[in-house]
Amino acid sequence: SALQHPQLAMRMCVAQVLGEMKIEQAVPQLITLLKDDPESIGRNYAAMALGEIADRRAVEPLIEALHNTSDQEARRTILNALGKLRDPRAVASLIEVVQDGNPYTACFAVEALGEIGDSHAFEPILQVLEHWNTDKKKWVRSWAASALGRLDDDRAFEPLMNALHDQDPKVRIGSAYGLGFLGDTRAIPSLRHAYRNDQGIDDDTGDTVKGVARKSMSRIMDRYNAMLYQRLGKHPSDF
Known about the structure:
The protein is mainly alpha-helical and about 240 residues long. Helix content is about 65%, strand content about 0%.
């Protein structure tokens, strides 16, 4: 197997190609690479490939790898992979990463929890949104706001509405995203107000409160209309 090639560059290249092509037959060999490659970057490429393939056989090995490394870049790669796999088995370990309090890895764990959408993550993510206010941690709150909406948990509505008025424009942007993912039509008036009046911008991404509010209103209405058509037993083309 080329994944056992003595040259690191070859192992990395092969793992990347297998991931991009989503070759499920390579999952066992990639798991072996994740566990046994002597170079951390080789193990990272294996984790990335397993995330891209998104085969559930990789969940437990990725969780094990997460517990066995303290390297932040390696943990980031594994967290991203677990988010792509969207398997509830990873939730407890991801919550542990959030509760460890390291903002760098916590942001990726929060994002992965949002992708998985398990309601067990509600309280830990809410804690980040409402209480991570120190200079070193507060930037993670915008990630938490967005992820909270992805959980599809009605309890998220009030915290996200409060966050839409936060002093930090990044948190307001994250909240606007979260409300769009949550899909509750009660958010429409506040999102409309943000669209008309909030000039906040995220200097890092270029996102604006106005732009995200508009997208989220559209997302909510699309979801509402789809539910309405389903209840009526109709398709939009029938009208």
